[in-house]
Amino acid sequence: MTNRRPAMRPGSRIAALPFVARGAGFLLFWLVLTDGSLAMVLPGILAAAVAAPVSLALLPPRPLRPAPAALIRFLGRLAVSMVAGGVDVARRAFTPALPLSPGILRYHPRTPPGPARDALRALMGLPPGALAFEAEDEDGWLVHCLDIHAPVVAALAEDEARFRRALGSEDAA
Fold this sequence. Notes:
By secondary structure, the protein is mostly helical. 53% of the residues lie in helices and 9% in strands. The chain has a three-stranded antiparallel beta sheet. It starts with 12 loop residues before the first helix and ends in a 6-residue tail after the last helix.
């Protein structure tokens, strides 16, 4: 006799949770778009009921094991880097003697392509001074920065490692 867990069937409660969660998210989005109009609730429910299974088929749910402490540390570092980046950009704007070496660097993220990598790239664009965008040859990111002599790539690697730990990635270093 084995102790194997039974396979999840499409009709099970566990399988219904992602459908309900996405459907609720789509309905909430619909209500925001329609300013909460009562006349638009029924069409919103229908639209959410159609959008949820399509969404699940296109982007199946994957288990996440977020680490709350690591997430708080990551968000704290992100906030600090946003303030520090803003101060640095302001100093450079008001002190022309400060060096300015704009350019583009290449960064190879370890996060695989998908929603997590897209979220990481968006978060890395929040602090002023560097902006990452996907390279046309799909070989990592191109990062536009104000000072190519600053340790931009090292900072991105450190932030990515913190991000991966916050998401609970097994191979986060």
